[in-house]
Amino acid sequence: MSPLSKEDIDRMSSLSREDILEELKTKMLSAPPQSPFFGRDIISIKELSREEIITVLNHATALKQTPQPELLKNKVMASCFFEPSTRTRLSFETAMTRLGGGVMGFADAGVTSTKKKETLYDSMKIIGQYADVIAMRHPAEGAARRAAEATDKPILNGGDGANQHPTQTLLDLFTIQECQGTLEGLNIALIGDLKYGRTVHSLAQALIHFNPTLSFVAPESLQMPSYICEDLKKHNISYTFYERIEEVMAQADIIYMTRIQGERFPDKMEYERVKDVYVLTKDMLAPAKPTMRIMHPLPRVNELKEEIDPTPHAYYFEQAHNGLYVRQALLGLVLGALHA
Ligand code: CP
């Protein structure tokens, strides 16, 4: 039920108790059913069911086809980025603006009171008093969860350390469905830094709902964490470890490249040793299926050569573009303007 306005309260003060009860009952019965997304934090992809994931993708499809420039009129999103970002921050901000909402926030925590040692908890408690929804990124694992404890406004996790990047995963799933026509039963190779790459952690966990065959291509020191492999095993999802891209090229429907995450290595010598271990070139695509598509959350460094960009296999720029519609869908859902 929508909150009572001051006019409602003034008018009701002259009514009898029975009339007030009758009016409240009518108001409650005519209220739209409460969506399971309304007011909700999106912290980890594991908290979304298969049906909920599909709801987000369906709304994103509708928003891509039909813009809704007034959907979030009078709503304000705080964009709080404690760690660098191009795609996540700007697509969140554009998503909100193109739905008619307002945006405030920061792209550099160095200009906030974090610089004066304000805690994340206190910052988020305050920001939640100004905004209707908060999109955030932070270098510390668990930061989004801590922020959600500080405020009752929905927190949309745009990446917390090496942990989770659920909104990226939703746009990845949207993109896979768009380029392959389905999410079911695909052969998907995740390649690169599977240890520190939060996008591949969230994506592997989400794919549990869609019966994939997974290939993990990484040096042994950067392989998929065991807690995720255990989860896959529990759900009977087939996965195999590889060390060379060539081993997975012919069978893959999706090649999902990732950057080696230099900023997360405690040992910089180790980073120097592995940083160029995978470099995907055009020649290496020769055995690929014509329908195979290459994705990458971006930014890329050296692992994905520009010579691949004009090939029909390249789909990473479309992937980044889709972030706009998926984040619009999430904003609409958690703010109650869209319904499950
Ligand atoms: N994919 C992604 O998270 O990119 P940014 O770091 O630029 O936000």
When the domains are counted, the total is 3
Order of helices and strands: HHHEHEHEHEHEHEHEEHEH
Q: Span from first to last CA?
A: 16 Å
Oligomer: single chain
Relevant CATH superfamily of the largest domain: Aspartate/ornithine carbamoyltransferase
The assigned CATH architecture of the largest domain is: 3-Layer(aba) Sandwich
Strand count, sense and barrel status of the largest sheet are:
5 strands, parallel
Identify the overall geometry: globular
* Bound ligand species: phosphoric acid mono(formamide)ester
Radius of gyration: 22 Å
Index terms:
single chain, 340 residues, alpha/beta, Rossmann fold, 3 domains, five-stranded parallel β-sheet, four-stranded parallel β-sheet, 11 helices, binds phosphoric acid mono(formamide)ester
Question: What would you note in describing this structure?
Answer:
By secondary structure, this protein is α/β, with parallel strands linked by helices. The protein has three domains: 31 residues; 131 residues, Rossmann fold (3-Layer(aba) Sandwich); 155 residues, Aspartate/ornithine carbamoyltransferase (Rossmann fold). The chain is 38% helix and 13% strand. The strands form two sheets. It has a five-stranded parallel sheet. The mean pLDDT is 94. It binds phosphoric acid mono(formamide)ester. The site of phosphoric acid mono(formamide)ester has 9 residues, from helix 4. The site of phosphoric acid mono(formamide)ester (CP) has 9 residues, from helix 4.
